[in-house]
Write a structure and sequence with these properties.
This protein is of the alpha/beta class and about 290 residues long.
């Protein structure tokens, strides 16, 4: 049995589907009761509802599982405390393999949510438990948040310069890599970068969108204050907003790139390209 924390989010659901395809039994840790049906529909056999900040909740969730795939709530100010509690509970309940969903380049102090994940990595390395650390790039799926604007208006909005070069990864590829690490031996004590493509500029990305959509798509650079106002309207908290603004500023100055070589090895194939991802997304719309 494999426990997936943060199981109802898009990452958790993708990892669950990949595990079920491999025939693994999955237990899901969920925040709310209404999420149970969602994970059961994709093959979850067992579930635990509760807050991962609660030690009793984590103890119940980890009883009898062989492995844990730990996904902390996105941009959480409690990332380190949650990670510490999860690692300690896993150690105490006899979990045999702890896999941590980290982030590409966690050693970047200028991005607090990356830096917090590095602190959790350190705790895990020092825990004496068999572990694997996965460090995914930004998901290609993130662009779908702007899909209506891209498709209907030909505008791709970004809060950093159009020349910014970013690497991305298809979430489905990252999930397949996670399932491989969780179900096959030989990945203990490893840290793997999960990158699907060498970084491209936002202008190059818009050119791919233009080609696949059959209409012009242009990059529209959004001022950070404008982005912040929209984020407040959307209900993001102050910590999340400040953290993401720091990330955008980092991108502006340094880009954010990685190599797809490790992911290619884990998948046994070339990772999904951005062009292929957009083609698949368009097919799924039909």
């Amino acid at each position: 049995m494999i426990l997936v924390t943060g199981a109802a989010g898009k990452t958790g659901r993708s990892v669950i589907r990949a595990l079920v395809e491999k025939g693994a039994g999955v237990r899901a840790l969920l925040r709310r009761e209404e999420q149970v049906q969602v994970v059961e529909s994709i093959g979850v056999q067992e579930f635990q509802v509760g807050d991962m900040r609660s030690v009793p909740t984590m103890e119940r969730a980890m009883q009898g599982v062989q492995a844990v795939y730990h996904i902390c709530p996105n941009v959480s100010p409690d990332e380190v405390a949650i990670g510490q509690a999860a690692i300690q509970t896993a150690h105490e309940t006899g979990v045999e393999h702890f896999v941590f969903h980290s982030v590409l380049k966690p050693q970047t102090e200028a991005m607090p949510h990356h830096w917090n994940k590095l602190r959790v990595e350190e705790l895990l390395i020092e825990s004496r438990m068999p572990y694997t650390i996965l460090q995914p790039a930004a998901y290609m799926q993130n662009i779908l948040a702007h899909w209506e604007s891209i498709r209907d208006q030909g505008i791709y909005p970004v809060p950093y310069p159009a020349v910014t070069r970013l690497s991305m990864v298809d979430l489905e590829d990252a999930a397949q890599a996670a399932a491989t690490v969780l179900t096959e031996p030989g990945h203990e004590y490893a840290s793997y970068e999960l990158v699907g493509m060498i970084g491209i500029t936002q202008t190059e990305l818009a050119e791919i969108l233009s080609e696949k959509l059959g209409r012009p798509v242009r990059v529209e650079v959004i001022a950070l204050e404008t982005w912040k106002s929209r984020a407040i309207e959307a209900g993001l908290g102050a910590h999340q907003i400040d953290t993401l603004i720091n990330m955008f500023r980092y991108y502006q100055h340094f880009d954010f790139m990685g190599s797809p070589r490790v992911l290619s090895w884990l998948l046994g194939r070339t990772p999904t390209s951005f062009t292929a991802f957009i083609k698949r997304s368009l097919q799924e719309e039909v």
